[in-house]
Write a structure and sequence with these properties.
The protein has one helix at about 50-90; strands at about 5, 15-20, 25-30, 35-40. By secondary structure, it is α+β, with helices and mostly antiparallel strands.
């Protein structure tokens, strides 16, 4: 996409920071060294609008995709946990070694 603003001509070859609203790609905000320069407009997108029903459909589609992904991951985790339980029940349990906790006294500069 091509964004246009007369102010940008002076900054050709310079590094700039772009900020934009993902819901409105027709306009971007341009910053140079943390200073706002201008708002550049994309002529191709400036007059276009997206109907609400398209936005709702896209959002619902994305929710379904995410729900399916979560369900697949949950099934994988459940199968891995089940496999681990099965392998753990096959092995004899080893007693945990008993160790005495180390006690350290905290010393301060003024203590002698």
């Amino acid at each position: 996409m091509r964004y246009i603003d007369p102010t940008l001509a002076a900054y050709v070859g310079e590094e700039v920071l772009l900020r934009y609203d993902p819901r409105d790609m027709a306009e971007i905000r341009v910053f140079h060294r943390d200073t706002f320069l201008c708002r550049a407009v994309c002529q191709e997108l400036a007059g276009e609008t997206v109907p609400l029903r398209d936005i709702v459909r896209a959002r619902d589609r994305r929710r379904r995709e995410l729900r399916q992904t979560l369900e697949e991951r949950k099934r994988k985790v459940d199968s891995l946990l089940e496999a681990r339980r099965w392998s753990a029940s096959q092995e004899p349990e080893k007693p945990a070694p008993v160790t005495a906790p180390k006690v350290r006294l905290k010393r301060y500069r003024h203590d002698y």
